[in-house]
Amino acid sequence: MATETTPRSETRMPLSRERVLRAAIELADAGGIESLTMRRLAQELGVEAMTLYYHVANKDDILAGMVDMVVSEMEAPGSDGDWKSSLRTSAISAYEVLVRHRWAANLVLSGPGVSPARLRHMNGILGVLRISGFSPEMTDHAYHALDSHIMGFALWVASMNLGSEEDLKAMAAEFLTTLSREELPHLAEHVEQHLKPSDPNDEGEFEFGLDLILDGLERLRDS
Fold first, then answer.
1. Residues near 72 by Cβ (< 8 Å), separated by ≥ 6?
2. Is 47 left (phi over 0), alpha (psi -120 to 50) or beta?
3. CA–CA separation, 134 vs 220, rounded Å?
4. Whole-structure pTM over 0.70, yes or no?
């Protein structure tokens, strides 16, 4: 009697550098960068820890690769069309990527080396500014103003960890009960803004600050 061969119900995906890095990103997204260890990563991939070293050199190599992948998710500024619109779109994309991966902003700034994707992204922003008529000196200031806004805001969001809009409103309402309106009237008024219904036309604090920077740069360029 012939024996039938039963196909395996699940075929394991071959291990690769990309698969290792994507699994590392998923771990960091779920539990923070401190949750990422070689042993935990190997468990997630269903392999022995030593097997990882066929695809990555060490932990620093993994961190550098993670940064490169995350920065590659950011939309690069286009060199055609309106420079303000291009930089605005790119900045918002970068901010949204960093908020999606809340561990990443700190690692971009303090991790091992500067990733190739980060270098390309920086070069793209600098190129748009130079092509748009900014001097080398003004391009330097403009780049750092934009980068500081993106990174600073992403770090603030990651460190505050305020949760959903409903969580923020509940926190604001509770905080108001502890404030003395007589002593701190302006702070109380500020907190009350978080209890108001969201304006559908209000893009948010990040975009508000970004537009101030871009409008200011335009005035300086044209002066």
1. 117
2. beta
3. 9
4. yes
